[in-house]
Amino acid sequence: KMTQQMRDLQLAQARKPPGPSSPNAAKRLYRNLSGKFRVNYTSFDEGSLAGRGEKEKLRKSYLFQSNAVLFEAVELQDLDRVQELLKQYSPEELDLNTPNSEGLLPLDIAVMTNNAPIARALLQAGAKESPHFVSLESRSLHLSTLVREAEQRVNELTAQVVNEAPNADCSEKEKQLKAWEWRYRLYKRMKAGFEHARVPDAPTNVHLSVASSSSVQVTFWEPLSINSAVVTKYKVEWSCSPTFSPPLGEAVIDKLKNLHFTIRGLVSGTAYYVQVSAYNMKGWGPPQASVPPFAIPSNWREYDGRAPRRRGQAEALDHLLGQVKTVHQHCICHEPCKNQPQSRKHSVSKSLKHLFHPGSKFLKTLKRGLYLTAIFYKDDNILVTHEDQIPVVEIDDTYSCLLMQDFLWFTKVSCMWHEILWLRQCVTVSQSSCSCILQTRFKMLLAISQMQGLLGIQDLGQVFFEPVKDKQGNILIVTLKEVKTNQTFESVRWVPICKLQTSRKSVSSPEEPTALDTLLISVQDKLAYHQWSSRALSPGLYLGYLKLCSAVDQIRVLVPERLPNILCHVKIRSNPNISREEWEWLQKMASMEEPISAEPEAETSQNDLFQELQVAIKELMTLVNIPLREAKDFRLYSQEVLDFGGQVSFLLLLPPSDDVCTAPGQNNPYTPRSGFLTLPLQIFELGEER
């Protein structure tokens, strides 16, 4: 029935007489499409179609109608419907840049009726103007032709309606007359919009910054004037001369979602001038010079010729690990490995079907000891054993006090889940020393291997930053991993977290819960921590706050809860690069013994950084709950800029030297607001690497 409705609708459209529809007809058309037609297409049973060819034919027909609906919505200035279509379909599906029978594109209609909201929505979706309008004269001639032909058609239909006797044909002619009268008014409005338009004013807030040692970035805003036509593209020009003679290059920007452009391939140490101009259907407007007027491509490292801190480190570590493996390759501890069948290695099935094998050795209850638990989750579901338990294996039943150094060693092992067998063999060699530490760590490796074998997966995920303990002497090391695959497994059971929490029968009292009960109660917090610690910062330059506190066996660092792999921070700007001139100014500031006014000259990159730093410092001090009057005692770390992958960089704000690290028993005079936590420094470093 639904398919038949769709066919009937197409036939009805095919029987329509040629010529444009009226506003009421247009409204009925896309109300029909957005109602029955759209619902029928997306909800009918796939099996009801005769075959793939019929389905594809139906879809193409539907998309063709969607293109017609878009034109009607633009002509009727229906912004909501235009946005709905652009959200629902891709530009290709809508044929966004295919002209209609009048040689117009949706953007042409929006621009010439001066409908700025619809024009902006189309531009952000990738719409372009018709390529047929190569000059002002050609556009004017085309509009005049459309107006003249529409007027002629109105006159013809008017004469026919007046001269013919009332009948069915006359009624149809009256409908056509109304449609052409509406079309005539639309074309006249478009022609008037074109004739009254003027070239756009210059763009505003044209800002130039140094992006790297070989590039500069220009950002800008659209012109302030609201009387000219909609701007559809911009032109960026650059030159080594302030008069732009000769010009070195130019680029036209017609994708207006983000108004910025990076000029690449420049010569380091050379000054480049940049200007930006805007374009509408009347042509190019006047250019606007950037502020500052020029920029010199450079990087802060050029100040003293410093090489990147991490250059070659990853390769060197890989080489070192290879050498260590080579040394141990012929150890006696590797002999048993050679005799093991290939299937015994941990490259077992990557599915989790072994999780519910009857012979699994997951624990139901805890005795006094050290345990490993792995939490795998997908959306709001968590993976459990066939007895509805989170997978737990024993590490050591005689270990009642986990030393921080052992735990930190375990977190480092989590970076080498695929090397556990090799690590076990290496530790075995040293067991003759009867070291308690080595025995504990060997048992940790055995437990990891057992968990990997039972789960049928090597990567157990990220270690939670602290173990879960109870008063009975149980200690749980927790790993967390999100399963993003949509693959289903026959033997695996995913249980909603809330159901697991409510159905578990606790064997402990609320006053003294066991480690497993504590884990279940706080599992959402741990999953949130895991997701937050995987987030990345958007590109830019940030101001970070370094605050440490020490205990007997560790140093902890203050971090935000919602981004625990990064120091407390605020964003300074979107450009991560610090130029040589900016770094030179920062070095000059750092060398001053007395705090004096050192505001740089206006319209320079140094002045921009000065203003941005002032705002960022105030914001950061408020964030960590430190009175602004104390800012005079804080210092910027001036030894280097911390680079993270080339897209994110940090300047560090340090407390007075005596307050950088709070000693045991020492009170912190300024308690941060809620939303912060302290991580062991080694855990923080691992999170940063991830």
UniProtKB/TrEMBL annotation:
Q: Identify the stretch(es) annotated as Disordered.
A: 1-25
Q: What's the domain of life for this entry?
A: Eukaryota
Which Pfam families is this protein grouped with? fn3
What Gene3D superfamilies does the database record attribute to this sequence?
Ankyrin repeat-containing domain, Immunoglobulins
Q: What is this protein called?
A: ANKF1 protein
| Annotated GO biological process | establishment of mitotic spindle orientation; regulation of establishment of bipolar cell polarity
* Listed SUPFAM superfamilies: Ankyrin repeat, Fibronectin type III
Naming one, the record's GO cellular component terms include:
spindle
Q: Where are the ANK repeats?
A: 102-127
Q: Does the keyword Signal apply?
A: no
Assigned keywords, A-Z = ANK repeat
What is the protein's species of origin?
Answer: Balaeniceps rex
Chain's gene name? Ankfn1
